[in-house]
Design goal:
Elements: H1 3-7, H2 16-24, H3 31-54, E1 63-66, H4 73-84, E2 88-92, H5 93-98, H6 102-116, H7 121-124, E3 128-132, H8 148-162, E4 165-167, E5 173-175, E6 180-185, H9 190-198, H10 207-217, H11 223-229, H12 233-238, E7 241-244, H13 250-258, H14 264-274
Parallel strand pairs: 1-6, 1-7, 2-3, 3-6
Antiparallel strand pairs: 4-5
Helix pairs in contact: 2-3, 9-11
Length: 283
């Protein structure tokens, strides 16, 4: 096994702009989210290389993707991991909150990551875990009645996000210090919290203008906004990079069907072509 494979050193050709170009082939739109994610992930693996070469302990920057369901959060992460050639798994925060054995469920996530790394602990420690629906760990009333289930899951996740040794079924120990955690969620109601905290008022002349002004207002999510939403301060503090994903327009939905390299339209074209059938979809 060569050193590059063993440490998952980032290929010098994989710059933030190269990452964005790769994501453009699979994810339509969401340009700002792509740029934010690309820079964050690039910086993460550069930090790992620096830590390895210099012995410095460098703080990890985990990522939060905020956006409605179906806007491409999971696809962004999958496409990213494919480019970087690192182990990648997804998990659902809702399932964690419903489990009576949260620690066992988290252990299972890391075991799956280990399997994706073909049983190599070093590769596992440089993998990516995407946890979706993280916003479901909030309570109905975050200010006073935060549910113990959601908060306990946040604390359990916080341990591995900060870096903790985990004993695998194989008997080996996995250090999660360098595992990159990307969390995602719709965070319905967060915009209202942000608008209220910024004390911003305006009069819009149209629905489109209203939407554009709200988007400008809500470009940056602050940790205090996430705490007010229902995440515990320690957990929100570990999500140092936040990327916003926008609702998909009608034009974007059409492009999603036809433009990505792995789009469903091209897949069916290829399948039917084998049978001598030409598929053409027209408006």
């Amino acid at each position: 096994m060569n050193e590059e494979r063993q440490t998952n050193a980032l290929d010098p050709r994989v710059t933030p702009s190269a990452i964005v170009r790769h994501l453009d082939q699979y994810v339509i739109g969401q340009d700002e989210a792509k740029k934010t994610l690309a820079v964050a992930v690039y910086a993460h693996y550069q930090k790992l290389a620096l830590s390895r070469d210099s012995g410095l302990e460098i703080t990890k920057s985990n990522v939060l993707l905020v956006g409605p369901t179906g806007t491409g959060k999971t696809l962004l992460c999958e496409s990213l991991a494919r480019l970087l050639k690192v182990p990648f798994v997804t998990a659902d925060a809702t399932s964690l909150a419903q489990s009576r054995y949260v620690n066992d469920e988290i252990q299972a996530i890391l075991e799956r990551l280990h399997d994706k790394a073909e049983g190599e602990v070093t590769r596992t420690q440089h993998g990516i875990v995407f946890i979706d629906e993280i916003d479901k760990l909030k309570s109905a009333s975050a200010a006073s009645d935060r549910g113990p289930s959601g908060e306990s899951v946040q604390h359990a996740l916080l341990k591995i996000m900060e870096g903790a040794p985990v004993r695998l079924a194989s008997g080996e120990y996995l250090d999660t210090t360098h595992v990159l955690f990307i969390c995602g969620g719709a965070f319905v109601g967060l915009n209202a919290i942000m608008a209220n905290n910024q004390g911003f008022g305006f009069v819009a002349t149209s629905e489109d203008e209203n939407r554009r002004m709200l988007e400008r207002l809500n470009e940056r999510v602050k940790p205090t906004d996430l705490v007010e939403f229902g995440l515990i301060p320690e957990f929100s503090g570990r999500l140092t990079t936040v990327a916003r994903l926008r609702d998909l327009s009608r034009d974007m939905l059409v492009r999603i069907m036809t433009e990505p390299r792995n789009c469903i339209y091209r897949q069916f074209q290829a399948i039917l072509k084998v049978q001598g059938v030409e598929l053409v979809v027209a408006p």
